[in-house]
Design a protein that fits this description.
Layout lengths: L8 E5 L2 E5 L1 H6 L16 E2 L8 E3 L9 E9 L2 E8 L9 E4 L5 E3 L11 E4 L4 E4 L2 E4 L4 E3 L8 E6 L7 E6 L3 E6 L5 E6 H4 L10 E7 L2 E6 L4 H5 L6 E5 L4 E5 L3 E6 L3 H4 L6 E6 L4 E7 L2 E7 L17 E5 L2 E6 L2 E6 L11 E5 L7 E4 L2 E4 L12 E3 L1 E3 L12 E11 L8 E2 L6 E7 L5 E8 L7 E8 L4 E5 L8 E6 L3 E9 L1
Length: about 500
């Protein structure tokens, strides 16, 4: 049955899609998720969602949230791992979906807080949550990690054929033998990376590329917004020493999962974070870090807890989908000449997407829909096609390069994404007692060749705005000041 691809015939009935598939209709009465009633009749696809494929704790088994932390296609099935907050819950775990769309919880399931996954081709198995799954679908569990909140699994620097790294949300880094599944703690990153006392460590991601392991911690609350504390971290380890790349909250670190294939692209590594100004995109290429800024589609993600879990995933061969603060982006896999270009927004959205994969011709989005504030915590999966995302919300956003930031005369801002948005406005202000000239420069080729667009003089302590002409765009835009001042340069895209 696993090798039989079901043919799905979708018929629109008053806005509801009904799935007419004899194979599924035959099997679904037997398929059930843990602690749920047996399903009868023909299953329905409602708005790209099969309601039967819901991850939920039984009764009051979760007193926080019940999300789907990671997805991975493997062994002729789609695997999903559930998560609850702070390992507080019961009755969820590891799920599999067959080609006939039967949905079931695996007997080896562990209820915990898991959002990690990695394909390890050398050992022909995948890691998802605390589990290792071989090519036949047999499941083993890393017993030592069952009670840890697992944020990421990454390739090993020194022994990639036999070991992998596991990063916990608390900042513990383990190495695990892929054969024996024995785990050994290597570091506690909280003191190593000098997180401020009283801040909550909340590590979210890790990825290995270009001879280093890069990790992200997304701590961000009122003190980070006010600028009185800097507990976020983007850091790297070369196998010998740790180095802090940036003291801002970062939520995702990603790149090509197969390093031998990735060598053709330079094994580019992307990291997504933010501050109280805008989204930050860091790019590691040829061992050098570059820095860019992007607009935010929503401020609903502006907290340590609220950023779960924006991802960069390869959803088509050599094509990345980036989810960043309420905007989906088309993100190129390659960087030429050390320059990033071709990033373009696809859609604005409010969905929490802890993971996204392609499976049997479908794009599948994980979710974290409801927590205990609105009833029984539960989450479902979204099934569709990649190009359907273009029909989601029109790309809109806002963000700046400076926000009451002390800048020097002649200082140039980070590049800010411009392409792919419609109406564009730039707001300029400063707190100097002298007039200040702001020069707007554009890079329309994306190769670092900047050209002046306009210079605007802002009166002492004053404000000006620039409305870009309809249809005008470039890959990147940046701002240069003519005098030292406390400056604000903030874009709104509608």
């Amino acid at each position: 049955m696993h090798n039989r691809i079901a043919i799905l015939v979708l018929v629109a009935l008053s806005g509801t899609l009904c799935l007419l598939n004899p194979v599924v209709a035959q099997r679904f009465p037997e398929a059930r998720s843990e602690n749920s009633e047996a399903k009868t009749g023909t299953p329905f696809l409602v708005g790209n969602v099969f309601p039967e494929m819901t991850v939920k704790a039984p009764g009051v088994g979760s007193r926080s949230e019940t999300g789907i932390g990671a997805l991975i296609p493997w062994a002729d099935r789609l695997w999903a791992i559930g998560y609850v907050a702070h390992i507080a819950g019961e009755g969820i775990g590891l799920y599999s979906i067959d080609s006939d769309l039967s949905f079931q919880r695996h007997p080896a399931s562990v209820t915990g807080t898991f959002a990690n996954r990695l394909v390890h081709w050398e050992s022909e198995q995948v890691f998802i949550g605390p589990h290792a799954i071989d090519e036949e679908g047999n499941v083993r569990t890393v017993e030592a990690l069952k009670k840890h909140r697992l944020a990421a699994t990454a390739r090993h620097l020194a022994d990639p054929g036999n070991k992998v790294y596991f990063l916990t949300m608390e900042g513990l880094l383990f190495e695990v033998d892929v054969s024996t599944l024995e785990a050994r703690q290597l570091f506690d990153l909280v003191p190593l990376l000098k997180l401020p006392a009283g801040s909550q460590p909340h590590f979210k991601s890790a990825h290995t590329a270009q001879g280093r392991l890069v990790v992200a911690n997304n701590t961000y609350e009122e003190p980070e917004y006010q600028g009185t504390r800097r507990a976020g971290r983007l850091a790297e380890w070369d196998g010998k020493e740790w180095r802090i790349v940036e003291e801002n909250p970062f939520i995702e670190v990603s790149g090509k999962q197969n390093p031998r294939v990735g060598e053709r692209y330079g094994n580019t590594l992307y990291a997504v974070g933010w501050d109280n100004i805008s989204v930050i995109l860091r790019v590691l290429q040829d061992g050098k870090w570059a820095r860019y800024r992007l607009p935010q589609g929503s401020h609903s993600w502006d907290h340590t807890w609220n950023t779960e879990w924006m991802r960069i995933r390869e959803v088509q061969t050599e094509r990345y989908l980036m989810d960043a603060f309420g905007i989906f982006y088309d993100l190129p896999a390659m960087v030429y000449g050390g320059r990033v270009w071709g990033i373009r927004p696809i859609a604005s959205h409010l969905r929490i997407c802890p993971d996204v994969v392609s499976w049997r011709g479908l794009l599948v989005l994980a979710g974290d829909q409801t927590d205990n504030a609105v009833g029984q915590p539960q989450s479902g999966l979204w099934f569709g096609s990649l190009d359907e995302l273009w029909r989601w919300g029109k790309p809109t956003g806002w963000g700046g390069v400076w926000r009451k930031t002390q800048v020097a005369a002649g200082e140039t801002s980070d590049p800010f994404l411009m392409t792919g948005f419609d109406k564009k406005t730039l707001h300029l202000a400063h707190q100097s007692d002298q007039p200040v000239d702001f020069t707007i420069e554009i890079d329309f080729l994306g190769d670092g060749d900047w050209h002046p667009f306009r210079t605007t003089r802002v009166p002492p302590g004053g404000y000006r705005h620039i409305e870009f002409p309809d249809g005008f765009s470039a890959h990147w835009v940046r701002v240069r000041t003519g005098a030292g001042c406390l400056a604000t340069a903030y874009f709104t895209y509608n």
